[in-house]
User: What shape does this take?
Amino acid sequence: MDQEGADPGFSAVGEVAGDRVTVTVTGEVDMATAGALFEAATPGRVTTATVDLRAVTFFDSAAIHTLVRLADHYAGAIEVLASDRVRRVLDIAGLSTQPWLKEG
Assistant: This one.
């Protein structure tokens, strides 16, 4: 992340179909962008979520915190698709065995 703010290549686009939101995330997820990820993943009136992190280039502790918040929010009704880079960060954080983490 540069000192000016959020990664200009970051995006978190949520698409709702029925009671599921699917969020596709690109770029860096960090303190400057984690809130936008959470907002995209929690639109009103959905009960399940898929978060696709396969195009994420950077993932820090703020991003990890956001995933934990989303896992709590959706309580067993979330799946996260992770790139090798994100999976490595989650492994270091001790989260690689969480049931919501799926093969990307």
User: Anything to note?
Assistant: Strands lie at 11-17, 20-29, 48-59, 78-82, 101-102. The radius of gyration is 13 Å.
